[in-house]
Amino acid sequence: MYKILIVEDDLIIAKTVKNHIRSWGFEAECVTDFKDVLATFVSYSPQLVLLDITLPFFNGYHWCSEIRKVSKVPIIFISSASDSMNIVMAMNMGGDDFIAKPFDLNVMTAKVQALLRRTYDFTGQTNLLEHKGSILNISDATLNYHDRKIELSKNENKILQILLENKGKAVSRDTIMTRLWETDSYIDDNTLTVNITRLRKKLQEAGLSDFITTKKGIGYMVE
Question: What's the pLDDT score for residue 154?
Fold first, then answer.
């Protein structure tokens, strides 16, 4: 089931849109913390975003730009500021479509369905994991931190995914190796050590020192 994130500060409009979208079989949630829309985006991991332009604290252009740093998820702007300049700005900032207020709910739903179909009929869904300001994009094997994009190898991406999925818990070396190669057969222990060392170096160069800690006799941990 596709998940839609609604970024709209007018509670009546937000609730109406959410209920209508749900009636069509989608999951939908509304942002409530407009100081950090990106945090809600990462935790909810939607397949599409409906985004107003005029918002408290930061406008929709800002949040579109922030989302685009970590994800290619479809974004539809919804706004009463529907002059040509704002429409062009929305598209240039990374928006995929624009719906002018007031709008017909059925037209909006048709646009949502069409964009979801075009996006996900041929590509997989994006998976994001966040920790202390860093965002791991599992789909394209990158870690974003303070406007820096760190390219990860396949193994580094998988190791970080495993550790972030188990934040606050020590993960044994055996568990990591089994997940890495999806096999119970023996793998040289040094291979994991080399991958961890390379990953730590990349993280440190990006300003993420001590991101991965070693738990002696157990394995590794992200705290």
Answer: 85
